[in-house]
Specification:
It holds the Pfam family ABC_tran. GO terms for molecular function: ATP binding; ATP hydrolysis activity; transmembrane transporter activity. By secondary structure, the chain is α/β, with parallel strands linked by helices. The protein has one domain: Rossmann fold (3-Layer(aba) Sandwich). The chain has 7 helices and 10 strands. The protein is globular and about 50 Å long. It starts with 8 loop residues before the first strand and ends with a strand.
Length: 236
């Protein structure tokens, strides 16, 4: 862990920038991001469309590499990880929840949740038992054999959360997880995130909805590719 870092710090971004190129023209998306997140924090990332929220989430989740800057995850420089180490990190340390659920339509709820365990060391019976318990924990014990098309948006998102949790990651990253949900399903999903936070999970949530962000205890506001505000406590 870097000198001077908090021993409970799980994420530290220093001078992170991300640019894309159109021909020879550089188009910056993130300009200079300095951000530290401690173990067990519930952080929302907010900002207008085009502010760089999803780009930042992709970098945090090791789905994309920054153009410049340093990203320490559990004290290790992500830039030094090879592709297989990045894949292991994504599978074991981080659970992802996306707005579009990203479930495989031809697999049941149970098989979607089992999927991240396929390359692990558990036997088939153990994987199934673990997946059933995880689906039960999100209130879907009676839907384990349903296909995604047979479930509501809220149920599909709960399957996605169960899948994200199946390898017991320390960090949950959610990108607009309630964007396709009605108000009732939004409350159900956010209550699950609140319980995970109470259990000690680190949660990073991208959202443009103030009522959803209110579940978090800290709010990082992006504007034009940089952090304009970092608010601890309730949103003003």
């Amino acid at each position: 862990m870097m000198a001077g870092a908090d021993k409970n710090e799980v994420i530290r971004l220093s001078g992170i920038g991300k640019s894309y190129y159109i021909g020879k023209e550089e188009v910056p998306v993130l300009t200079h991001i300095d951000l530290s997140i401690r173990e067990g924090e519930f952080v929302s990332i907010m900002g207008p469309s085009g502010a760089g929220k999803s780009t930042l989430m992709n970098i945090l989740g090791c789905l994309d590499r920054p153009t410049r800057g340093s990203y320490l995850l559990d004290g290790k420089e992500v830039a030094n990880l090879n592709d297989s180490e990045l894949a292991y990190t994504r599978n074991r340390k981080i659970g992802f929840v996306f707005q579009s659920f990203n479930l495989l339509p031809r697999l049941s709820a149970l098989d979607n949740v089992i999927l991240p365990m396929i390359y692990g060391s558990l036997f088939k019976k153990e994987r199934k038992e673990r997946a059933v318990k995880m689906l039960e924990s999100v209130g879907l014990g009676d839907r384990i054999n349903h296909m995604p098309a047979e479930m509501s948006g809220g149920q599909r998102q709960r399957v996605a959360i169960a899948r994200a949790l199946i390898n017991d990651p320390a960090i949950i990253m959610a990108d607009e997880p309630t964007g396709n949900l009605d108000s009732h399903s939004t409350r159900e999903v956010m209550e699950i995130f609140s319980k995970l936070y109470e259990q000690g999970k680190t949660i990073i949530l991208v959202t443009h909805e103030i009522d959803v962000a209110a579940y978090a205890g800290r709010h990082v506001i992006l504007s034009d590719g940089h952090i304009s505000k970092d608010i601890r406590g309730p949103l003003p």
